[in-house]
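Justification of resources, computational component.

The compute hours requested in this renewal are based largely on the per-chain cost of generating structure records like the one below. Each record pairs the submitted sequence with a full structure-token output. That output is archived, and it is also reused by downstream analysis tasks.
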Amino acid sequence: MRITLAGSRHFGVTTFNMLRDHGVEIARVVVADAGDRLASTAKTAGIEVVVQDHPKRIEASEIAPGTDLIITAHSHARVSHEALAASRLGGIGYHPSLLPRHRGIAAVEWTIKEGDPIAGGTIYHLAERMDAGAIAAQEWCFVKKGETARELWERALAPLGLKLLAQVIDHAKAFGSLPSKPQDEQFATLAPKLS
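The structure output for this chain reads:
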């Protein structure tokens, strides 16, 4: 299984490490910023790093040849239709909410702001609309009273993302496909950046 990993920051690095421990080949890492810690980690490991031509879009030319699956981990760039087509199984990302609830950049913050007693994580198929692709895996967790967004992310949602990504990769390795269940649009909510 050849992976192109697009991402950034701490979650990008922990995903990179999980993938390496999980026995898949990381063919290339794609970043928006050459100075990002994911870029440094990949270079240290001898993995090719490509900096996106456009910080908000990943193009087909940035996907490694022979890629089986694109994985995004803390990437805020849209993966173009052509880039997804360059990968045998397309692409998946992790979103820290029970999609279709809290689609957007501030999902964890909106979970806290709305007082949700339950949160969760979703592995979803990358699609033209942000956070709107079919669900490949999903799991919930409780939100502790008084917990901040950062505390919820670090305690439950980041580890859950790594676990769910590993499950979907195992499924792809075993069956040559990704699980897929459409999101129910009637329950969709947005989680734009909070000021």
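The chain has one domain: 2-183. The domain at 2-183 is CATH 3.40.50.170 (Rossmann fold).
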